[in-house]
Design a protein that fits this description.
single chain; binds pyridoxal-5'-phosphate; Aspartate Aminotransferase, domain 1; 12 helices; alpha/beta; 390 residues; globular; Aspartate Aminotransferase, domain 2
């Protein structure tokens, strides 16, 4: 008999009752160090007082009106994101896939608007992940996500991540945009080289393409800058973000320049929930913290502390781990044994991480961690490795 919850997930026997900062407490009373953050979502940790207050205060006043009316919190959050980024305009969604979908529509509409509707193809990368809707599984191009859902949504080409020559060879007369994750997340925490990013920008300028970045996982402070592409100095045309933007409240955003969004006029796109007053109250509160004094500097510093400490752990356990990859607080441990075994061993010892492509475990701690959390994590990693080696 099919379970009441559609059985598309495989879950351990584990549920949580409450969370506090970097820790989660299970229904059976155990404490876990959360280095998964609901997959890069709860970036400010659990039960952050500023977010809790914003949610409760707004919850008492007004949850939802509709995008047919003005939403002051939405205007405020959009303006703050514009002021803090490359973008001139923002569309709010409820999820990452919807933010990517909006970006795809922005790209297609741009070429339609400038009289080149034949240019609709987007070159993306192999091992990418852009979401689970029909268009975003096509964008991701991964066989395991596409299988059984034919016909595949038209208009995506794929080349290996990090290779400028292959990208250039894939550009044709119908190409509209290049789409990459500045740090591939699900694909196994691969950070794009700054030179690769700059090369893509130059290629886009040369061929008149739009540079479309998926920062759903690596954006909103996780790399140590608000957006990961900032490390390369490159200015994109369109960016999709989500996960960390609401600190756990379902929220996403598609950011674009005025040029790229030229066709996004009245009636071309919309959402019932996207950017509603409740989401905007939490989103504004999360941005208060992320843009607050010293917050991103702490992410950079903790990223360095973590890299140093964890590289030591990996070196001490060469049968379990290869190197540590990634940047800021979006990190991966390369595993020498099945990553699912490592995830399970860490869980037994009270630490939560999540697997990723290329047999890595992903470390996505809340961005509020300090040295004590890194130290605690290193101790658990060490214990779990000893157990796995025995
Ligand atoms: C998680 C993710 C998505 C999809 O976000 P959803 O909120 O699950 O729809 C898209 N792109 C990237 C890079 C992601 O990590």
């Amino acid at each position: 008999m099919i379970p009441a919850v559609m059985p598309v997930y495989s879950r351990p026997e584990l549920a949580f009752e409450r969370g506090e900062g970097a820790y989660l407490f299970s229904t059976d009373g155990k404490r876990y160090l959360d280095f998964c953050s609901g997959i890069a979502v709860t970036g400010l940790g659990h039960s952050h007082p500023h977010l809790v207050n914003a949610l409760i205060e707004q919850g008492r006043k007004l949850w939802h009106t509709s995008n047919v009316f003005r939403i002051p919190g939405q205007e405020r959050l959009a303006q703050r994101l514009v002021d803090a980024s490359f973008a001139d305009t923002v569309f709010f969604t409820n999820s990452g896939a919807e933010a990517v979908e909006c970006g795809i529509k922005v790209v297609r509409k741009y070429y339609d608007e400038i009289g080149q509707p034949n240019r609709y193809r987007i070159i993306a990368c192999t091992n990418a992940f852009h979401g689970r809707t029909l268009a975003t599984i096509a964008a991701g191009g991964q066989e395991k996500l596409l299988k059984g859902f034919d016909p595949v949504f038209e208009g995506f080409d794929h080349v290996p991540f990090g290779n400028l020559n292959e990208m250039r060879n894939a550009v044709g007369p119908d190409t509209a945009a290049i789409l990459i994750e500045p740090v591939q997340g699900e694909g196994g925490i691969r950070a794009a080289d700054p030179d690769y990013m700059r090369g893509l920008r130059a290629m886009c300028d040369e061929f008149g393409l739009l540079l479309f970045l998926d920062e759903v996982q690596c954006g909103m402070g996780r790399s140590g800058k608000l957006f990961a592409h900032e490390w390369s100095g490159v200015k994109p045309d369109v960016v999709a973000t989500a996960k960390g933007i609401g600190g756990g409240f379902p929220l996403g955003a598609c950011l674009a320049t005025e040029k790229a969004a030229v066709g996004m006029t009245y009636g071309t796109h919309g959402s019932t929930y996207g950017g509603n007053p409740l989401a905007m109250a939490v989103g504004n509160a999360a941005l208060d913290v992320i843009l607050g004094d010293g917050f991103l500097a702490n992410v950079v510093r903790m990223g360095q502390v973590l890299e140093k400490r964890f590289t030591g752990v990996a070196a001490a356990h060469p049968k379990v781990f290869g190197g540590v990859r990634g940047m800021g607080l979006i990190r991966g441990f390369e595993c020498k044994i099945p990553n699912t075994d490592v995830v399970a061993a860490l869980r037994r010892h009270g630490m939560l991480v999540v697997g990723g492509g290329d047999n890595v475990i992903r470390l996505l701690p809340p961005l509020i961690i300090d040295e004590s959390h890194v130290e605690h994590a290193a101790e658990i990693l060490d214990l779990a490795c000893r157990e796995l080696e025995a």
